[in-house]
User: Which sequence fits this backbone?
């Protein structure tokens, strides 16, 4: 019985640790183009909370560029939708 639970819980634990990686890697990233694209992707997939977090990091960097208008609109609308 112990071996069965071991063989069930160990793969589930490994899967759990590896499944939450993409967003947290993005959150710590300093590649602003990648963050901007990911924020837009999360916004289009209607995952507004994650988009807001990424827009918070990107907006001060891209302010004044041609991409900032769309990013600020998406940021405001994501707050509205939540």
Assistant:
């Amino acid at each position: 019985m112990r071996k069965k639970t071991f063989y069930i819980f160990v793969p589930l634990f490994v899967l759990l640790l590896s499944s939450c990686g993409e967003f947290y890697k993005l959150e710590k990233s300093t590649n602003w183009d990648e963050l901007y694209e990911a924020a837009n992707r999360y916004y289009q997939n209607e995952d507004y909370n994650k988009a807001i977090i990424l827009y918070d990091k990107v907006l001060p960097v891209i302010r004044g560029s041609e991409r900032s208008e769309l990013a600020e609109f998406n940021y405001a609308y994501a707050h509205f939708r939540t």
